[in-house]
Amino acid sequence: MSQRILDRLNENYHLSENDQVIVTYLLEHLEEIPQLSSRELAKRTYTSATTIIRFIKKLGYKNYSDFKYHIVLMLKNMNLDNYDIFSGEDILSISQKVSQLENDTIQKTKDSLNQKDLQDIVSSIES
To answer: What is the tally of structural domains in the chain?
Structure first.
C-alpha cells in the first residue's frame, strides 16, 4: 500500500493547479512530510490546510495522519542502508549487494501488484 503513495502522486491527472503544486512539493521533500503538520505543508505550498486535506482525500486517505502514516511506512521500506557501497570494497561484495537490491526491488514490486490492476493490464493487452 505504501508504494502506492508515489504512484498516486505521480498520476497528475484530474488535479487542480493547487494539487499540482502540492504534488511537486511532496515529491521533492518526501522525507520531511512525517514531521510536517497539514498547516505547515499548506504554508510551504502556498495553499490552505483545507486544500491539503481535500488533496489527501483525493488520494484516498481518511485524513492527513493516515497519509503521514503511509509515508512513514514507505520511507521505512525504502531504507537503502544495507546496500551502501564503500571505497575499497571488493567486487564480490559489491555484486552481492547489487544482486540483493535487484531481488528486493522485484519482490517489493511483486508485493505491490494488485490483482485487479493486473487483470486490467491483461485486458488492455488483449484488446
So the answer is: 2
